[in-house]
Each structure stands twice: as C-alpha cells, then as structure tokens.
Amino acid sequence: MIRLAGLVLPALFLTTAAFAQQADQQALKGAAAFGDWRADRPGVRRLIKPEDLPKPYVTKSASNSAGLAERPAGAKPRLPPGFSAELVASGIDNPRVVRVAPNGDLFVADSEANQIRVYRLGEGSARPVKDGIFAGNLNQPYGIAFYPPGNDPQWVYVANSDSIVRFAYRKGDLKAAGDPETVVDNIPSNHHWTRDIVFSPDGKTLYLSVGSGSNAAEDMGKAPQGGLAAWATSKPLGAAWGSEDGRADVLAFDPDGKNGRIVATGLRNCSGMTVQPATGALWCVVNERDALGDNVPSEYATVVKQGAFYGWPWYYIGSNEDPRHKGERPDLAGKATIPDVLMQAHSAPLNIAFYDGKNFPREYQGDAFVALHGSWNRGNRTGYKVVRLLFRDGRPTGEYEDFITGFVISNGEVWGRPVGVAVASDGALIVSEDGNGTIWRVTYGGARS
To answer: Which domains does the chain have, with CATH numbers?
Structure first.
C-alpha cells in the first residue's frame, strides 16, 4: 500500500555569509578525495583527475553490500542550510527514474512492480492531490520520455529492459488510454537492465542507453568472427562483439524506432541520460567496472560525443589499460575519450538532472544533480547520496559537491539508496530512493545571496 504524506519537515535558514563560506569550500583532491560515507555531509567537495587514479589491485576486490533497514522514525535527507525536504510518497515497491510532465505531473518508474506511477502535487506542496498507475504489465520499466518535446506531448515513451514502447498521451492523463505500441524491440536485457531514454531538443532523435552484459566482457571472446581487423574497419570505434554486440553503447533512433545507429561506445553502464538545457548536449552518468580495487576506476558523468569511444572493456578513463585485457587492443591505445567529471569508484551513479528551476539560489543555475545509489565493491562504502556537479559558463569544472546525505544509518546499514532526480515545474528537486521506496521534494527557503 502506498502511503502519502504532506508533512512539512523543518527548514533551516541560510545567511548570505554562510553561503559565501560554502561557496569558498576547498575541494578535496588526490588521495584525500577517496573518502567514504563517514566523511560525507552537504557542502563537501571533491575533484578527481585522471592522474589521481591508483593502479589496479592496490586493494583487494571487496564484496561489501550495505544491509537495508527500515527508515528510522523521523529520518529525512540531510541538506545544506536553507533547504528542506518533504515526503511525497512512501512504501513504493521500487521507485527508479522520475520524469516531470509538462503540466507538472511526476511520472515514476516503479521498476520491479512493472508499472509507471503518476503523482499530481498540490501547488507549492509535496502532498499529492491525485495519483494513479499510468501503465502496468511492463518489463522492468526505467527510462521515461515525453514526445514531442515541449508543452503539448502526444506520447509517453517508456524504456523496458528489452524494448521501448509508447502510449498515446494527452496533457493531464493519469492513466494510459490505450495499449502500448512497441517502438524498438529485441534489446538485450540480461545483467545491466536499466535502459534510459531521452529525446534531442528538436525531437528528431531518440537516444537509448544499453549497458554491458557483463562486468568486463569476460565471455565476449578474444576476437570477433571474421577477425579483428575486419571488425575494426567495419564497425564504430571500440564496438564490442559476441555477447556484447550492441551493448555498452548509447544508441539513437528516429522517433518511430527506425534508423537505429550507434552514437558512442565503451560506456559500460550509462544508467542515466539527460540533455543539458544551456547547450543541448547529451549527458550520461556511467557505472564503471568492478574488481580492480577500492578506488579504480572512477565512475563518471560525461557529454556523449558522436563517434566517441569511452574505453570499456579494454581501457578506462583514457589510456589506462584494464589488466584483464592486457595487449588485446593496441589499436585503441590513446583513442578513448576522457570523461568530463570523475566521481569516486563504485558510487553507482544512476540518474542526472540539470537545474534550470527558479526555487534554488542562483548559484545552482546550470549545475547538475546526480543520484549515487551506493557501493558494494568497496572496502569502505561510498555513495548513498545526491551530489551536485559544478558548472561555470555551461562547462563542468570537474568538481562535485555532496548535496543530500543522511541515508546511512551505520557502517552496516542504510535506509535509502537514491536513484531518480528531476526538477519539478515549480523549481523543487524531486528525488526517489529504492531502499525504503520513498519520493522526496526538496525546496529552498533561506535568505538568498
């Protein structure tokens, strides 16, 4: 049963001086940036550069998942001064991606329940005045997109683990009026199943992320049928083969699902995509590979460039060769694109949203929020938070800052695992987490600088 709440949690207030002090926060760099959840708090900044990465196997590979606990009474996300969080809903089976319809309704992928939920909030409130199941009988739905882009979409697209479908839509619909139409089928769905979708600003291109079918292409084989040379000359740079053919990629289609093509390769698991409002560039956040050590390789957020190769499985973060594939692809040495923002290894970034609302202080305009689901392959856990990527004049500085923490109870337990981030029509930040199945509305109410 879904429990809805309109309880307004106490807000803290921010002075101009305090905000200035926060803005001057020095980023942790080098080895100092490789901390864990115990050092996390809103305002802590990190800057990780490619040259900061340790060598593989400096530490042993850990299996260290956190236990999930019930949300303690009164527990709430921890935020910077001046911000507050209100509970929108709880008890949801598996809330994942959140997308905001042009009329302000929140569409939420309840992935393990195989359905899309919708919530209509009251004006200036976290309390839903209407809610419902927009569509069911799906297959691990994740990505959601409205088409055409703009104020009057005619379709809601949903990315299942194995297909993209669309539902006819009219503004304000709380339930799909008809059956889904399959737009793209036969998407490989084993292992990494989180398929995100987003349209280009002009609506002409539908982007789809397809994660790898393994950790590091263990079963792909050393060479494709017909030989490596022939493959490399006939396929996009860095394209994988065998069981990984068409995976670890960002793909593109026309809105009707035709004209499928590869945009970029070597993205092990791009679990979240969005378009940067200021530039129109496609961004994704990537879960990198495991079992090389606590702090290698970095997770990342990056612009997805046409024709680019991001390394997987042979290289990572530029020209660092994965020792499990040593000497296999010398032809790709020096050809992997270095991502734009590096984050701590094993943090598991799942979604990204650029802030273009008017509720937060102007310092947040143009920055991006990323939900970090949390680590399992690290001796000291990291993640379980929402971070803010800092931008200047539309370009990332490389720094990121803890924005929402407080989901960790102890070294062994967490109550929240952030997944979805979205900017509501009133400028609030909407955050989902699938540990206790909650959705939160974050607003700012302090003094502005």
So the answer is: 3-444 (2.120.10.30)
